[in-house]
Design brief:
Layout: H1 2-17, E1 46-48, E2 52-60, E3 71-84, E4 88-101, E5 109-124, E6 129-141, E7 150-165, E8 171-191, E9 205-218, E10 223-237, E11 249-265, E12 269-279, E13 291-301
Antiparallel strand pairs: 1-3, 2-3, 2-13, 3-4, 4-5, 5-6, 6-7, 7-8, 8-9, 9-10, 10-11, 11-12, 12-13
Length: 307
Amino acid sequence: MRCKTALCVLLLLICCSSALSAQPLIERYLVVNPLWDEGQAESGETSYVHTFGGWASFGPYLRFQDDDHQWNHQIGGFLEVVRWGQSTSLHVTTQIEFIADPFNNINFNPRAIFWEEGVVLTRRTGGPYWQFGYYHRCKHDIDNLNRGEERTLIYGSFMNRMIWPVDLESSERSYIAWKTDVFTVRQDTREPEDALALQPNVDQKLASTGVQAHTRFDGSGQAGWFATLYGDATLYSATDGFFDRFGSVNDVRFNGGVAAGLSILGRGELRIKAAYEYLSDTGIPVEPRGSHLFRVSLMALSPNVIR
């Protein structure tokens, strides 16, 4: 009964993801949880620099790409600073997502870079895991002033996430996570400045909430199949002030994505995946626009602690 219930929930989230998603948050297709690696930690014992790991991916956008997206490259890592027994962990993380468009003579023109860095506290509460932390996020154009336009974003946030391990028959490493970000520092700088009137505007970014889910089904030997999805609703306030922003919600934007492919486990994990997502604001052009994006990529990541 537990397996059937969890499977029904996962299928429901997959159905919902066609209507949901998030403005570019680099960890949208994965979750970092150092406590998945129990290692040599003893109950009640404090250890330092217990676990570290990372991931990297690279691949092209295909059929649905817009003028800003031709190639995608991501790289990230984390370091567990301290662990208290087997129930509490503190880690720092940093990651970048690099976007290239096709408009130069080698079909690879640097367009934008998204940067994230954060500190996260993870606590095991029985079966589920609870995470709380702060992320600083920013986006910068690369060599694009020759277009006569530029857009720079800063959107730091307090992050809260609950992670529920899911027991599915013939599968492993599965989870469902619910994540909420409340944005603090918000900055949307555009050149030319008259483009600031165009919506949505990160200056009014209030909060986002949504789901992530992942499962991996065993195949033959070390190979298997995986599926990952995420969905998010982002709320925008009517004002851009710091204290008066919670008085009203002016706009809600929905975005989401799903990825699936081959997973090969060894001392690391290799994923060959295809991913579709809809972003209501890609964060790149000064005139904000949504895009349907489809890409294939090769991803390598540390096993166990990143899923």
